[in-house]
Specification:
Length: 316
Amino acid sequence: MLCLFQLPCSASTPIYSYKWHILFRCKWVPFLRTSTFHAPRNLCSTPQYPMKLKMIDSSGTKSAKGKKSLQPTFTVQGDTLQVYWHQYVVVITSICSFAALFVRNIQATIISISNHEYESFLVSFAFASQVIAIHAAYLFMGYLVADFASGLYHWFLDNYGNENTPIIGKQCVAFQGHHQHPWTITWRPFCNLVGTSCLLSIPFLMVLLTIPLPSSLQTFLTSFGFFVVFAQQTHQWAHLSKPPRWIEMLQQKNILLSTKQHGQHHKPPFNKKYCIVSGICNDFLDNIQFYDKLERWVYILWRWIPRHRMEADKAE
Ligand SMILES: [Zn+2]
Ligand SMILES: [Zn+2]
């Protein structure tokens, strides 16, 4: 793992190592914490970043400038808004595979209901309702876990890795650059936006399509995969000043990531509200300081410092 990700933020970086030793010794490492110690004030203060104009302002409200008011700015070398033929192929393959999986799940549900021996209307109705409820619950669990996974992955891309990180290097740079140029995402056509995640999903989809699994597990994995793969679309909708009306309704009901909630992630130091599918998990994860604890363990295990901490130190 250590050699897989050569991160720019090793603890050997001399400028930051001193502060981090204090921080971890006293605040982040529970078994070394002492009641008399107080971390230096400058470690706890929120840095003030020069924020450029963006689609979501610091209060989380949508920019009055509207969609596509600013020209796209790219941080990944060779990045473009163009959609290539191979992106069409992977996106169509991914959508068709998910559609086939959803149809297969519905088919499996119908078969298990119809195979049940008819006793009376009430008993059969109760059985059918139970089967449908179980599948609906797995579908919901997939959606919930996808939101959590999107947060975890987003947290990793924002805070660790760089252009030299294998496989996901470009994604690291793109996510880190998104904080500086958040409006660029609003320019991306659908296949350009989800092309990479669809490409990465192909092996997962092939496994799901070829290996027979219990129908409930298959329902869960299909739902999970679908929401993870298309998380960038829900992210883009949260940045649009005028998303489709039905999407806006789902955002208001917190079924999809709302602009207001995602706006809180775009406030410096960019270290909370990482989930980008529905944002349902965001408050809970922030309340239990999930990412703080995770960063603490990452530091203990590999001596990696999260980017938002390094930038907070730089800003002082
Ligand atoms: Zn971010
Ligand atoms: Zn964003």
